[in-house]
Design brief:
Mean pLDDT: 82
Bound molecules: calcium ion
Largest sheet: 5 strands, mixed
Radius of gyration: 26 Å
Low-confidence stretches: 1-5, 12-66, 91-129
Number of helices: 5
Structural class: alpha+beta
Helix content: 10-25%
Distance between the termini: 92 Å
Oligomer: single chain
Strand content: 35-45%
Number of strands: 26
Length: 449
């Protein structure tokens, strides 16, 4: 009996010691859990992601101070500092860092801080399992004059007389607009303001002549910058009848040439989530004037936009949310459909530039910059904008890939032997040599028309 009790006591002691040891092991394991979690990220990477989110939040806070030029200046200096840090990071990033791991990092870092995090994380992992194609640029433009985050958005002028002498017009949001030939050489630089987005439409009757009109959203004085293309010199010439101010605090912009009415429009977007539409018209003496014809609220920050001239649609990127489609006519109202979304869709915030590749019979593609994972998403232009695929512009022979892209543009027009099926142009946030620039990708390597 005594022996039994002794045995029981010692068994109990062993059990207690065992539980204690197990508890210690558990604590250790949870301390190291970061290394084994489902996202496959190291805790170091996570900390960086968290920092990125924090930086983003800081950015958002700053956005309320648009009107104050002093604060804008300070903000730019701050962004400059951040960019230097980021560029250094991008440089030291190993080349084995695959598209998928970039995507994964962004997906999980963005979604972890958002309220819809759980839903997004689940669906996000489905999105990143889709194949990410890689294409290469065959031409890059000269760097923009301004340092830091300066290049923003390209527009393509297809030269009707000689397609191989077409041009790329690129915005330098710290200083003005540049014009490049298809070899990437800068032909012109106009230091006219803080041009954010730029767009172009040809066939506008100005002073009795069919003219290609270029507009840009000028954040320096909150105006619409308006130019025309001189088809002989290929350079831009001032065409505004007067300084036309926006009724909103301008950010991005795009144009709409209505197939229905023949009228030309300009859309401005803002960090407060508003869109303002202007009609552009000849003032009677060969200059372009504009009048506000519609204004509506999308939601949070909107910048990139594009209009489908034939189908009469206006697409706008709500940067942290996704892509919306509205009617492009001034009387279209605010009925809208969501084409795709951040978290659960194919996009990683910020959703930036949009462009339309026109095919025959109302078909073609809507292309979008998914800035958060350095990629581009392709949807069908017609119907419900079905998802087609996503791709990156990777390092090629002698030309670095495109990262953190803001603006994009595309044309399906034959631009000569270098771009026989058109060209896809993207802003590159991290050019390997010098200031930011634009990358040109032959369209046939991305989509078949
Ligand atoms: Ca940028
Ligand atoms: Ca933006
Ligand atoms: Ca690059
Ligand atoms: Ca380069």
């Amino acid at each position: 009996m005594n022996l039994g009790l002794k045995y029981l006591k010692s068994s109990l002691l062993v059990l207690i010691l065992g539980i204690f040891a197990f508890a210690l092991t558990l604590e250790n394991a949870s301390a190291n859990f970061d290394f084994f979690d489902l996202s496959g990220e190291s805790s170091d990477k996570k900390d960086k992601s968290k920092k990125k989110d924090k930086d983003k939040d800081d950015d958002d806070d700053d956005d309320d101070d648009d009107d104050d030029l002093d604060k804008e200046q300070k903000k730019r200096e701050k962004e400059e500092k951040k960019r230097a840090e980021k560029a250094a990071k991008a440089k030291s990033k190993s080349s084995s860092d695959s598209a998928e791991s970039v995507a994964m990092k962004s997906e999980s870092s963005k979604s972890s801080s958002k309220s819809e995090s759980k839903k997004a994380a689940t669906a996000g992992s489905a999105a990143i399992s889709e194949a990410m194609e890689t294409v290469h640029a065959t031409v890059e433009t000269d760097p923009v004059p301004s340092g830091g985050d300066a290049a923003d958005d390209p527009a393509i002028w297809a030269n009707p007389a000689d397609p191989s002498k077409s041009t790329i017009i690129g915005s330098d949001k710290q200083g003005g607009l540049a014009v490049y030939d298809l070899g990437g050489k800068q032909l012109q630089y106009l230091p006219d303001g803080l041009m954010d987005n730029v767009d172009l439409r040809d066939g506008f009757t100005l002073g009795g002549q069919k003219t290609a009109i270029v507009t840009a959203s000028n954040r320096k004085d909150n105006s619409i910058a308006i130019y025309k293309v001189n088809p002989q010199t290929r350079l831009l010439e001032a065409a505004a009848a007067r300084t036309v101010k926006h009724g909103i605090t301008i950010y991005g912009s795009c144009m709409y040439s209505s197939a229905r009415s023949g009228k030309l429009y300009y859309f401005g977007t803002s960090k407060s989530g508003d869109v303002e539409q202007f009609e552009l018209f000849d003032n009677g003496s060969g200059k372009v004037d504009a009048k506000s014809v519609r204004r509506f609220k999308v939601g949070s920050v909107v910048e990139g936009c594009v209009a489908d001239d034939e189908l009469g649609q206006f697409y706008v990127a709500e940067e942290a949310v996704g892509i919306w489609k509205y009617g492009a006519e001034p009387e279209a109202g605010t009925t809208r459909t969501q084409v795709d979304k951040v978290g659960g869709g194919h996009l990683v915030a910020d959703v930036e530039g949009l462009a339309i590749a026109y095919g025959a019979d109302g078909k073609g593609y809507l292309m979008v910059s998914s800035q958060g994972n350095y990629s581009y998403v392709v949807y069908r232009r017609e119907g419900n904008n079905e998802f087609v695929k996503k791709f990156r512009v990777g390092n090629g022979s002698g030309i670095d890939g495109a990262e953190e892209t803001d603006g994009i543009d595309v044309t399906t027009a034959n631009l000569g032997s270098a771009f026989p099926s058109g060209v896809f142009v993207v802003q590159d946030g991290f050019n390997d040599k010098g200031n930011q620039n634009f990358k040109l990708v032959p369209l046939q390597t991305i989509i078949k028309n």
